[in-house]
Amino acid sequence: MSPFFILLPLSAIFAVAFILATLWPAVEFKKWQALDGLRGLAAVCVFFHHTTIWFHFTKTNQWVPPTANFFNQLGQGAVGIFFLLTAFLFWGKLRDEPQIDWVRLFLSRILRLSPLYLTSMAVMVGIAYLAAGRPATGLGWNTLFTVVSFGGIADIFGIKNAFVINAGVTWTLHYEWIFYCALPFWALALRGYKRLRVVGGIGLVVAGAVIYLMWHAYGVDSDMLMFFAAGILSAEFCRWPGALRLKAFLISAWGSALVLLLLVGLVLTFHSAYTVGAAIVYGLIFTPIALGNDMFGILTTGTLRKLGEVSYGIYLLQGFVLYAFFRSATVRETPLDHWLWAIPAAVVLVVLAQLSFTLIERPAMNRVIPVSARLRQLRF
Question: Angle at Cα 16 formed by Cα 296 and Cα 78, nearest 5°?
Fold first, then answer.
């Protein structure tokens, strides 16, 4: 399948995002504009990755990674970028802020990730219930546990491989939560607290319990952890005084060319992004952008920053859109037919992501400050 097939749906995504950015500009992130654009681009790449998987799924009924390096890296590499972003930004908080407001930090993560995630799980249950007709089985306690612990849903109502309904995208969230819960332990190690208050001790116990439960329930691939390690190393490099001598080159047009060269070499060399070698290369690609390289101005455009703003919706909701558009596709469908149908699917997805951000995500995020203030009043 030719990589050029993505150009038409990609153009449609950019066109819709441009219109949305004109009507409702993304919030200005003065320090991390390029990273926000990178997040949006990564979310779009995951969509193309799953679009490719759907083409083969309609032919073989097997949900497997694309055989072509390019299409496989679109999804797996984008997930790696998400992990790099998380590690870079939150490790940076530990390094730069003398005092972490842990109540606000964890509340911000809960209110940022939970509302749309739980909404998507409710939608998935509804779709699965309708698809099952008269389901012989209901929602068990195991299913409820996996939902509330950000494990998503694999099988439900007797439907095997029900994860196809949402493309199984939720598996990355427990990695995110394991990283967040590890932050207090790293802060303890970095700052060498001489005295730990009772509330802090309780918090460490809770965080440790969450890490243990998620690790035990879902397992953790060490290769995935390499992306978090690469993000931490990138954050340390950006704070290293010697990096200032390299910054002028890394954020220049020559630095952008180097990023593109590394990216091409990565796609030609690695089929899977989930290897130590690929994670290292992605870390090298990520670092110039973290320093401020905007890739010839592309990453800081209003269009890409809008996609970054609604990226969580693009990521979580893409499976439903692809399921709606492609579940009735026939084996006779050609690659061109498939990607032409991806154009309206892409448009619908970006619009839905904007709606979810406006109606669900942003209202929840706006509650972080008042709710954290109320919680601090309740502390004893």
Answer: 55
